[in-house]
Design a protein that fits this description.
Length: about 130
């Protein structure tokens, strides 16, 4: 497995990611339609040429927001989410003093292990923050 970093729209980004942006299954699982602009940096996990997961970081001022983390169901429990989180954290820590994320129940404990604390809960989602 290899994780490639993409700036918004860089190289073959849209060719690789377009099907996920259009997928109703991905949108339903994430709980929101995906978006991207120049403030986003993407981390895409590949197994050969196959996209097996992806996640983004949006940087605005001194704040980074972790967005759109997804791993294909057939590839879960293989550490892909953890590797993408580590890559995004390393990237964000060099550019922001505050990192925010909206977590589902499956990722809360993992995020706590990386220094995130819960700040609020909205329905099934928990807003968490990491401070430098």
């Amino acid at each position: 497995m290899e994780i490639k970093q993409y700036a918004h729209g860089e190289g073959d980004f849209w060719c690789k990611m377009g099907p996920f942006f259009a997928s109703r299954q991905v949108r339903n699982e994430l709980g929101i339609a995906m978006s991207s602009d120049e403030s986003y940096t993407w981390f895409v996990a590949f197994n050969g040429d196959e996209v097996v997961g992806f996640a983004a970081v949006e940087i605005t001022g001194g704040t980074a927001v972790l967005r759109h983390a997804y791993v294909n169901p057939a590839n879960r429990a293989n550490g892909i989410y953890a590797k993408m989180l580590e890559a995004r954290m390393a990237y964000a820590k060099g550019r922001a003093s505050l990192i925010k994320v909206t977590a589902n129940v499956d990722s809360i404990e993992h995020l706590r292990g990386h220094g995130f604390t819960a700040v609020s809960t909205r329905g099934q989602y928990t807003n968490m923050e990491w401070h430098k």
